[in-house]
Design a protein that fits this description.
alpha+beta, Phosphorylase Kinase, domain 1, Transferase(Phosphotransferase), domain 1, six-stranded mixed β-sheet, 15 strands, 54% helix, 11% strand
Length: 797
C-alpha cells in the first residue's frame, strides 16, 4: 500500500490501525496537501446496508465546520475499497498527550486547572456544534480526541460510532475503553440522544482530572454493571486540590438518569466557562463585579442562570451580592431607555432534533415579526440574524456586527407536547443582563407565548404603548396551535429557497388553512411562495402573479394590517400588471404598517429604480441595508440604480460587500460580471459570469448573461452554443423570452431579438419592468421599436 496512488491520494505511511480499519498519511496530489485516509475493512465495505449507513453518517459529519472537529473531505470507493479522506492532524490522542506530560508511574497526572479547562471547553464546543446539527458521536473517548502540536483539541471519528455497537471484550483490546465511556442508556441498549455524549464527555473529564477512569472493571459484564449501578468515586476523594464546583460539573455529566444529567452541551460550556472566569479572578456574571470575600465569590459562582424568579433565593449568600445586584438593576433601568434597536438571534434548538428545527426557526421569526411592531425600535430582519444560526454566538460581537443596542437570545426544547423556552435580553453596550425568563408550557400555548415575550420586552425597555398599539401587539394570527405549527413548517421550507422547499411550503401553508380557514398569515406565506417561484422561473409569470395575488388578497381580507401581503401584492402590480400607481400605494401602506420590514424597503427601492427615480431607489435600498446589514441580497438590489446613474465603481464596491458576506452568492458574481463588462474588463467579466453559473447550478439567467457577453465580445461560437441549449430547454419547460432576446442582442441580430422581447412583454415577463436600466438593452435603445416596448410596459419615457 505504501507508495501507491489510490484515486488521487499517494499513500505515504501507516499512522494507525483499529477495528474500523487502517489509517494512512497521504498526499492529495491534486490540491497538494497532506491528508489522512482511512480504509474500511472489507467485511464492512461489502455489506451494502452498513456501508450506506456509514456514508450517510459521514456525509452529515462532513457538514460540520468547527475548529475542534476533524474535517472529513470525502468518501470514495475504488475497486471495492471504501475509504474516507480526513484532515491530517499533527498531534497525539488526548490519552497520549496526558501520558506524555505525566510524571506518575501509571502514566497520568492531575492537569493544571487552566490547562484542563482550555482542552475541556474546546472538546465541549466541538460537541455542541455537532449536536446543533443533529449529529451524535456515540463514541467519545480520549482515544477519539486529538491534541495538535499547538495545543488544540480535535474530535475524531464522527460518523463511525453508530456502526460499532458492543463487540466482544478483551482485557487488552480497545473495546474495553469503548465500553468504559458508554452511557447507561447505551449499555442497556435503549434509544440514545445527544445526552449520551454528555455522559461520555464526563468520563473524559474524570479521566483527565483523576488519572483513572470512573468505571474500572476488567471484563464486559462487570463494566456494564458498574456503569448502570455504581456511582464513581468522588474526585474530591482522589485529589484534595480539585475544586468542589469542578467536581459538581463532572458528576452532573455522569448522572445515570439522563433527565437529571446536563440537558445540553451549551449548559456544560456555560458552567465550565463560569468556573474558568472565577478561577482566573474575573467577574462571573455580566455587569456584576466579583466580591473579594471567598464566600461571596462562591455565591456568585453558584448563581443560577437567569431564570424566572430565582434572584431572591440567593439572599443567604450575603448582603454584598444583594447590593451588587441592586446596583446592576439600577444602572440597567436608567440605561434601558437608550436602547433603540434589537436583534433576535436564532433561538437554539436544544437537542438538535432536525424534526423540531422548524420550531426554533419559526419561533425566532415570529418574535421578530411581533417585536418589530413596537414603536421607536429598529428591528433586524430575519436574513441578517439567521447568518448566526448554528454558530457559537457571542451576543456582544453579534450586536456590533448588526449595529444594534440590544440582543435577545434564547433556547427551545420540546419533549412531546411540553415546550421549554428560555430567553435573555442583553444590553450590547456593556454586555449586561437586562432581563431573562424561562417558560415551561404546553405546545398549545406557543401562540400566546410570543406575545407575552414581546410585551415583556416592551416593559423592560419602558416603551409606552397606545391602546391601538397594545391591541396590535396582542393580536393573534390564529387561535389554533396546530395551524400555527403548520405555518411555521411552511416558513421553514420557504426559506430554503429551492424547488423542493417551495413545494413542501405550499403543502404546509395549505394544511394550516385547512385547519383554520381564516388564518391570514398562512395565506400571506402562500402568496410569498408563488411570488418567489415566479422570480426563480419555476412557474410562468402568469401563474406566479395569479396565485400570489389571490393568496395575498385573501390574507388582507382577513387582516388588512399585515405588511407582508401588501408587499407581495405590490410586487404583482409592479412586475406583472405594470400598474405602477397601485404598486406604490401598496408599498407605502406596507411601510406604514411595518417600517422595520427590510424586504419592503428593498422591493420599493427596485420599483423606484424601474420608474427612473434612481436616487430615491438607492435611498430605500440603503434603508434595507440598515435594517438587514448582513443580508447580501440588499447590496446587489441597487444594481440597476447604479447602472442607470453610470456609477459603475460605486456599484462594484457595493457588490463586493455582498461577496464579503457570502462568497458563494451567485447573484453578486453575475452583477459584478455585468459591471466589469461595462468597464471593458472583459476577462474579469467572463470569469465572474462563469462563477455565477457554477454557484447557481447553471441558472438560465446567468447562462443567458454569459452568452450575451460572448456575443458582445465577438465570440459567436460560444454564444451560439449556449443559445442552442436554451432553445432546446425552452421546448421542455418555461424559459423567459427576455433571456433569449438578450443573447440575440449580443449577437447583433436585432430583428430576432425584438421578436423575443415582444413575447416577453406579451407574457408580462417580470424582468421587463427594468427595461429602461437593463445594461444589455443599451444596444437597442436608439431603435424606435424599443420606445414602443417601453410604452407597452407603461413606464415614463
Amino acid at each position: 500500500m505504501i507508495g501507491s496512488v489510490i484515486s488521487h491520494y499517494r499513500i505515504l505511511e501507516q499512522i494507525g490501525e483499529g477495528g474500523m480499519g487502517v489509517v494512512y498519511k497521504a498526499e492529495d496530489v491534486r490540491l497538494k496537501r497532506t491528508v489522512a485516509v482511512k480504509f474500511l475493512p472489507k467485511k464492512l465495505s461489502v455489506h451494502s446496508e452498513e456501508r450506506e449507513r456509514f456514508i450517510h453518517e459521514a456525509q452529515a459529519a462532513s457538514s460540520l465546520n468547527h475548529p475542534n472537529i476533524c474535517v472529513i473531505h470525502e468518501i470514495d470507493e475504488v475497486k471495492d475499497e471504501t475509504f474516507m479522506v480526513m484532515e491530517f492532524i499533527d498531534g497525539k490522542t488526548l490519552r497520549e498527550w496526558i501520558m506524555q506530560k505525566s510524571a506518575q508511574p501509571e502514566g497520568y497526572r492531575k492537569l493544571g486547572v487552566q490547562e484542563f479547562l482550555r482542552i475541556a471547553i474546546q472538546i465541549a464546543e466541538g460537541l455542541e456544534k455537532a449536536h446543533e446539527k443533529g449529529i451524535i458521536h456515540r463514541d467519545i473517548k480520549s482515544e477519539n480526541i486529538m491534541v495538535t502540536v499547538d495545543g488544540h483539541a480535535k474530535i475524531m471519528d464522527f460518523g463511525l460510532a453508530k456502526l460499532r455497537g458492543v463487540s466482544k471484550l478483551t482485557k487488552t483490546g480497545s473495546t474495553v475503553g469503548t465500553v468504559a465511556y458508554m452511557s447507561p442508556e447505551q449499555v442497556e441498549g435503549i434509544e440514545t440522544d445527544h445526552r449520551t455524549d454528555i455522559f461520555s464527555f464526563g468520563v473524559v473529564l474524570y479521566e483527565m482530572l483523576a488519572g483513572q477512569l470512573p468505571f474500572r472493571a476488567e471484563h464486559e459484564t462487570a463494566m456494564m454493571y458498574e456503569i448502570i449501578n455504581v456511582e464513581p468515586p468522588s474526585l474530591l476523594d482522589i485529589h484534595k486540590n480539585i475544586d468542589a464546583e469542578l467536581n459538581r460539573i463532572v458528576i452532573k455529566c455522569l448522572e445515570k438518569d439522563r433527565e437529571v444529567r446536563y440537558q445540553s452541551m451549551k449548559d456544560v460550556i456555560v458552567d465550565l466557562k463560569r468556573f474558568k472566569r472565577a478561577s482566573e479572578g474575573k467577574p462571573v456574571e455580566r455587569g456584576v463585579e466579583k466580591s473579594s470575600p471567598a464566600e461571596t465569590q462562591k455565591a456568585v459562582q453558584a448563581f443560577p442562570s437567569r431564570t424566572k424568579s430565582k434572584w431572591w433565593k440567593i439572599g443567604a449568600a450575603g448582603a454584598a451580592v444583594v447590593l451588587l445586584i441592586g446596583i446592576g438593576i439600577y444602572f440597567f433601568k436608567s440605561g434601558s431607555r437608550h436602547i433603540d434597536s434589537i436583534a433576535v438571534l436564532p433561538l437554539v434548538n436544544v437537542g438538535a432534533d432536525p424534526n423540531t428545527e422548524y420550531l426554533s426557526d419559526g419561533f425566532t421569526e415570529s418574535l421578530i415579526n411581533t417585536i418589530s411592531r413596537l414603536p421607536g425600535i429598529k428591528m433586524m430582519s430575519r436574513s441578517s440574524v439567521f447568518r448566526f444560526k448554528g454558530k457559537e454566538i457571542d451576543p456582544h460581537k453579534a450586536a456590533q456586527e448588526l449595529g444594534v443596542s440590544a440582543v435577545l437570545t434564547g433556547r427551545v426544547m420540546q419533549h412531546g407536547d411540553e415546550l421549554s423556552i428560555s430567553v435573555e435580553l442583553i444590553n450590547a453596550k456593556d454586555d449586561s443582563h437586562i432581563w431573562g425568563d424561562q417558560y415551561n408550557r404546553k405546545i398549545s400555548d406557543i401562540i400566546s407565548l410570543q406575545t407575552e415575550i414581546a410585551r415583556e420586552v416592551s416593559n423592560q425597555l419602558k416603551i409606552t404603548l397606545t391602546g391601538d398599539q397594545q391591541k396590535l401587539l396582542s393580536e393573534r394570527a390564529t387561535e389554533n396551535s396546530e395551524a400555527y405549527q403548520m405555518y411555521l413548517k411552511g416558513r421553514f421550507y420557504w426559506n430554503k429557497r429551492n424547488k423542493e422547499g417551495f413545494e413542501r411550503a405550499i403543502q404546509y401553508f395549505n394544511k394550516a388553512i385547512d385547519i383554520d380557514p381564516s388564518y391570514a398569515m398562512a395565506y400571506a406565506g402562500l402568496a410569498d411562495v408563488y411570488a418567489v417561484m415566479g422570480g426563480y422561473y419555476l412557474i410562468t409569470p402568469k401563474e406566479s402573479a395569479d396565485k400570489a395575488r389571490a393568496a395575498a388578497n385573501k390574507a388582507l381580507a382577513f387582516n388588512e394590517s399585515l405588511a407582508e401581503p401588501h408587499v407581495t401584492l405590490a410586487a404583482q402590480f409592479e412586475s406583472y400588471d405594470w400598474d405602477w400607481a397601485s404598486a406604490e400605494r401598496e408599498y407605502k401602506r406596507a411601510l406604514e404598517l411595518n417600517p422595520n420590514y427590510a424586504t419592503a424597503h428593498q422591493w420599493y427601492g427596485e420599483y423606484l429604480c424601474a420608474m427612473g427615480r434612481l436616487k430615491e431607489g438607492l435611498a430605500e435600498n440603503d434603508k434595507a441595508i440598515e435594517l438587514d446589514p448582513l443580508s447580501p441580497v440588499h447590496y446587489v438590489s441597487s444594481f440597476y440604480s447604479f447602472i442607470g446613474l453610470h456609477r459603475y465603481d460605486d456599484g462594484i464596491r457595493q457588490v463586493k460587500k455582498a461577496l464579503e458576506l457570502d462568497q458563494s452568492f451567485s447573484r453578486a458574481h453575475a452583477a459584478l460580471g455585468q459591471f466589469y463588462l461595462l468597464k471593458g474588463m472583459n476577462s474579469e467579466a467572463i470569469a465572474e459570469l462563469k462563477a455565477a453559473i457554477e454557484l447557481s447550478d447553471s441558472s438560465l439567467q446567468y447562462l443567458a448573461d454569459l452568452a450575451y457577453a460572448y456575443g458582445y465580445l465577438g465570440e459567436r461560437t460560444e454564444a451560439e452554443r449556449i443559445l442552442k441549449s436554451l432553445l432546446q430547454t425552452e421546448k421542455q419547460k418555461y424559459v423567459s423570452p427576455a433571456l433569449i432576446g438578450a443573447i440575440y442582442i449580443g449577437l447583433g441580430e436585432k430583428d430576432i431579438a425584438f421578436y423575443w422581447l415582444d413575447r416577453a412583454v406579451e407574457e408580462h415577463d417580470a424582468s421587463m419592468e427594468f427595461i429602461k436600466t437593463i445594461p444589455i438593452l443599451a444596444l437597442i435603445r436608439e431603435d424606435p421599436r424599443y420606445a414602443r416596448l417601453v410604452k407597452k410596459v407603461g413606464l415614463p419615457q
